[in-house]
Amino acid sequence: MKKSKKIKKEVLDFNAVFLEEADGGFAVSVPSLPGCFSQGDTFEEALKNVQEAMELYLENERNKDFVLSRAKREFMAPVKVGV
Asked: Could you give the C-alpha distances from 21 to 24, 27, 30, 80, in angstroms and in order?
């Protein structure tokens, strides 16, 4: 019997910004992936849709190279501002 080859996939974590729309639903952007946006009628749908958008974004080799070159240097931190 032939052994099946395991496909190695790199898993990257990204922060997505969900904005609840006034008329319902959610708009989503991914700051680390310029131009990567999605939406959904519910949070769950928006999450599923943005994951698909991110996968499509990263299928483009030029986008993938850009992201991988920055992925290890970029991070988010809370910043407090008095208003």
From this structure: 5, 7, 17, 24
